[in-house]
Amino acid sequence: MTKAPVTVVGLGAMGAAMAATFLENGHPTTLWNRTASRAEPLVAKGATLAATPAAALAASELVILSQTDYQAMYDSLDQAADALKGRVVVNLSSGSPDELRRADEWASRHGAELLTGGVMVPPAGIGKPGSYVFYSGREETLHRHRETLGELGETTFVGSDPGLSMLYYQAQLYLFWSTLIAYMHGVALVGTAGVSAERLRPFAATMLADLAADGTMGFLKVMTEMIDAGVVRGADHNLRMQAVGADHIVEAAQEAGIDAAGPRALRDLMWRAVDAGHGADGLASVIEVIRRS
């Protein structure tokens, strides 16, 4: 059986990987890109390059966008607005949640449906085991195209609010970046004493595993339960004690002559929570300061 046709707009590293994945899985694939030459390797594999955005939209009900930002969607498709009617536009570009909500209104004005998404793997991971994409919009629409979109990775529906997919995406991305940058800071700190990154890595890996564990020592699980229950108990290891420890991390960075901006921001956030009356509570109480900022 012929698989559903799909149009891919935007052929940067991510868009090209998506188009290649659709092709490899037997989907008739139409392309459009502002720089047409980027389509040449995919055309050589069987894709069709549309001459105009309108022709690209006409080729498929399902239109995948992977561009620099949401403004690029308007720049590319405003000129072909009449061809949007009846299309399902899946925008997997990055933006702010409110920007995605405005884009949903724009699509509706032109008779199209918008599904927004956040791709949680780099281009090389598209379609590979472990890849997944957050989607928001109409669940019925996602379900109708789940098989095709599933070629890119697991389809994870997070809600009807078009901005939700980006909230999930940015929450995960912030966690990813901040964790790895904190690790780099640790590497730089011990490196001032001649310790290699590899010497530190097993200890960092053990800590990350402990954070993610499901048992009573799984700090992520315990903190999640506290946050959802509104209980931020401190017991013997209260926030004030931890804020003093954060002071010492800043001092260590300064003494070592490495950048202390990250540890200082962390320390300051903890002390703001202490100053707000949470000194006797646990680390989870910091979220009250984050929510108010």
UniProtKB/TrEMBL annotation:
Residues 1-19 form the signal peptide. Keywords: Membrane, Oxidoreductase, Signal, Transmembrane, Transmembrane helix. It holds the Pfam family NAD_binding_2. Residues 6-158 form the 6-phosphogluconate dehydrogenase NADP-binding domain. The keyword Transmembrane helix applies. InterPro entries: 6PGD_dom2 (IPR013328), 6PGDH_NADP-bd (IPR006115), HIBADH-related (IPR015815), HIBADH-related_NP60_sf (IPR051265), NAD(P)-bd_dom_sf (IPR036291), RedAm-like_C (IPR048666). Residues 161-292 form the NADPH-dependent reductive aminase-like C-terminal domain. GO terms for molecular function: NADP binding; oxidoreductase activity. Belongs to the HIBADH-related family. This is NAD(P)-dependent oxidoreductase. It comes from Actinomadura spongiicola. The lineage of its organism: Bacteria, Bacillati, Actinomycetota, Actinomycetes, Streptosporangiales.
